[in-house]
């Protein structure tokens, strides 16, 4: 039976990382040349890890399903990246960033991992500036910072509304340099379909070439999963359509525990759903909440008129506007954490105060900041975001408030890893959004980019050496080993099985049906009856999927429908595990909101006595219930208190 060992170093919190680095093994430059590492995913986590480890001398093979490494979904991040540099002189510090992150995650993350993240955050900014990332600057040339939700200081570095793009381009340039030197072997349009385990250690992967349809074998001394989150299990999300949980799910099916799958983040500032044929949702940066005020009408009759299109927001008198976040959370106002803001918007809309034709929208209004600062200032800060909003909605946000509504955005759950970022399978690592490690039950805004680059630039390059130091005498992995043959056959059999169903319904129809189940019962609010029903509905969906799936096109060629079919098959299984995890966790915390567990004023109510642990699920085989392992969370440096942003 699997026994989880988090390998958290002993000693004072502020010294754990430095003492750990001093104690772990290292690999000499001459020996690094003998070792191969596979990195799956080329976003900020995977790209930075690949570039860093190649620079150190390892032989790196990088894989992505896109046609270019720079098309990773990290490029879509808008608002910024956190770092505790205290440039604003507003009393920020490593400890404050650590505490804000622990509190923002509703006390469901490891102290040691979060403190390490805060420690290396400043180095990330220096690294990216050296790469030429064009962060916003003050008039005197110093880097600019802005506020984000869940904190009372300004620690978010940004490049207008294109921060993820600029960071990824810097990372991608570093990768290209190593590709040019022959230290990174790049495999675009290649998707991981299975992981090869030999004698208990991860030794390679099986992929499908998405252009030719060929199945390929790739061996290495270690495998790193950096493929992002699984938000697309809901079909409609802010993720790119191709984002999937396949690599993480294959890690799970090969024995790696999957941690906290029910922890999913709902982002409060997204453009509302506008049609049945919509395939994804568009995020509006959290940075907009710095200068935009969130409100709905105070009078229900005004909301009804707005929903019928009889009046516009500008027809609502000032005294008839309910700035509900400022009213309910005076200390943080519009900058409460994402889970709090999302539930508050849902509550207003559920009560009938929604402002669009569906009743599922609230206003994000810049009227007041334009009056206070001038249109030119707002345009300089958010112009590209305003332009994007107008192109999608055909409404001018300088003249009318934006309409926003919560949507699935990020997954805090993921593959379980220890302090070294290694899964419970030796040699298999998971970094960035693909793992569970740093955000607890809710991620603070601008912390995703921070974690991805921390893992890739400043954590994994150190910790992977502790494992690889014992692999120096292991020769290059033979891809003709029987385990590679076995796994290739399993992949081929799986794809053939899906392709030969020859039913009548498209892949997307099953994906949409799954998304409806997940949003309805495993979305912003959950309860016991709904979660039990979700599990039954997903099981019925799985039966229908295997009976009536239709995949068009050719098997041995480029076939997008075949790609999607494998991903949706994984999503169906993952959705059921998410519902199981949510059913087991009989408390509300962060993005996991159980209606049975609320405070008197309607806020999330934790149950620290029974649920202060990481849920780590172990796969037992097809058709069998997974085993739940519990990693107890120990808090020695922060006091567990009911989270409040009032």
UniProtKB/TrEMBL annotation:
GO molecular function: electron transfer activity; flavin adenine dinucleotide binding; succinate dehydrogenase (quinone) activity
Phylogenetic placement of the source organism: Bacteria, Pseudomonadati, Bacteroidota, Bacteroidia, Marinilabiliales
GO CC, alphabetical: plasma membrane
Domain FAD-dependent oxidoreductase 2 FAD-binding: 36-449
Protein encoded by which gene: sdhA
The protein's name in its UniProt record: succinate dehydrogenase
Cofactor(s) listed: FAD
SUPFAM superfamilies: FAD/NAD(P)-binding domain, Succinate dehydrogenase/fumarate reductase flavoprotein C-terminal domain, Succinate dehydrogenase/fumarate reductase flavoprotein, catalytic domain
PANTHER family the UniProt entry points to: SUCCINATE DEHYDROGENASE 2 FLAVOPROTEIN SUBUNIT, SUCCINATE DEHYDROGENASE FLAVOPROTEIN SUBUNIT
Family: Belongs to the FAD-dependent oxidoreductase 2 family. FRD/SDH subfamily.
Keywords: Cell membrane, Electron transport, FAD, Flavoprotein, Membrane, Oxidoreductase, Transport
Topological relation to the membrane, as annotated: Peripheral membrane protein
